[in-house]
Amino acid sequence: MTFDPRTLARMTTAIENRDPAALAELALLQPGHARIVGVTGPPGAGKSTLVDAMARELRAHGNTLAILAIDPTSRRTGGALLGDRIRMQQHHADPGIFIRSMATRGESGGLARATADVVRLMDAAGKDYVLIETVGVGQDEIAIAGLAQATIVVLVPGMGDDIQAIKAGIMEIADIFAINKSDHPGADRVERELHAEGFDCPIVHTVATEGKGVAELVEAVARASRPARALGRPGLPHLDHLGIAVNSLDAALPFYESLGLTPHRESVPTEKVNVAMMPAGDSRIELLEPSASDSPISSFLAKRGPGLHHIALRVPDLNATVAALKASGARLLNEPRAGAGGHIYVFVHPASTGGVLLELIQEHTT
């Protein structure tokens, strides 16, 4: 398969539309060597300008790259609302840069539904870097941590108490902090606050509009990047998370934090459970604490004590999977419904799985 810009554009569109033929072709592609970099942060931090400046720096050193700019969805067209291909149009004639705006289409977490698959395509196409700019909706943008090898959190001077407000979310997934617009008063104060909060990852001062600090930021990315992760093959189930029942999140989390894992807490009232989610490579660990005495987790703890509660697999078509399971006589505990993060899921009874509760999660909701 040739990977000229037009072919990449057509393939990307087909993948976004979940075209079965495109997904089947994607499954056959061999992985490349791309360094996957996430760029996230609050609105107004200058993420797009910084990504644009990083692209110029990378191209100056002969690297090829793809920019995936995740934008809010237009209610009228369903497409990307902001259109980073327009904002970065100075690169349109450069065959070494592929730019695509991807609409979230209702997906939470700051990424579009097909982001991981498009990253896989760009990797197979031989790109040296894939830069992913998240939506910029605020503190719940942690999905990028499970995809990128290095995550840049962009902050700006003058945030004040905003650092405290977002600390429990995106700041804790940072591999690098970029203090952008650092020519403005207060940049040093932001750095001092980061140190005071215990963040010890690299902190780079940048002025993206002038290119200042961008070379240092790219160098920090090279140093901070984790080893290339295996991007799962589309069309097949893959491990989403392990669910572990605990009596207390506060008591259990210090152990996992000592391993370097970063928790993000969320409550799921429908399940009467408090959850701490921690990205771990291609999947994650979820600690489950009952929020009420009649929670299913309370019942589990009373019978078995703390321990593995369930294994979750992500499947490409949950409805088709459920139909197949019902046809085979498998015992399902619920019909598909929304859970943590808005994902659609169903539980399969341990009697049908060999002894463990299995959760199946829709890969791409519609």
SSE arrangement:
Layout: H1 5-16, H2 20-28, E1 35-40, H3 47-60, E2 65-71, H4 84-87, E3 97-103, H5 115-124, E4 129-133, E5 150-155, H6 162-166, E6 176-179, H7 187-196, E7 203-205, H8 214-224, E8 238-245, H9 249-258, E9 264-268, E10 273-280, E11 283-290, H10 296-304, E12 307-315, H11 318-328, E13 337-338, E14 344-348, H12 350-353, E15 358-362
Parallel strand pairs: 1-4, 1-5, 2-3, 2-4, 5-6, 6-7, 8-11, 12-15
Antiparallel strand pairs: 8-12, 9-10, 10-11, 13-14, 14-15
Helix pairs in contact: 1-5, 3-8
Describe the fold and architecture:
It is a single chain. This protein has 366 residues and is α/β, with parallel strands linked by helices. The protein has 2 domains: 5-224, 3-Layer(aba) Sandwich (Rossmann fold), CATH 3.40.50; 238-362, 2,3-Dihydroxybiphenyl 1,2-Dioxygenase, domain 1 (Roll), CATH 3.10.180. It is 30% helix and 24% strand. The chain contains 12 helices and 15 strands. The protein has helices at 5-16, 20-28, 47-60, 84-87, 115-124, 162-166, 187-196, 214-224, 249-258, 296-304, 318-328, 350-353; strands at residues 35-40, 65-71, 97-103, 129-133, 150-155, 176-179, 203-205, 238-245, 264-268, 273-280, 283-290, 307-315, 337-338, 344-348, 358-362. The chain has an 8-stranded mixed beta sheet with strand order 9-10-11-8-12-15-14-13. A 7-stranded parallel beta sheet has the order 3-2-4-1-5-6-7, sandwiched between helices. α6 links the parallel β5 and β6. The protein is flat.
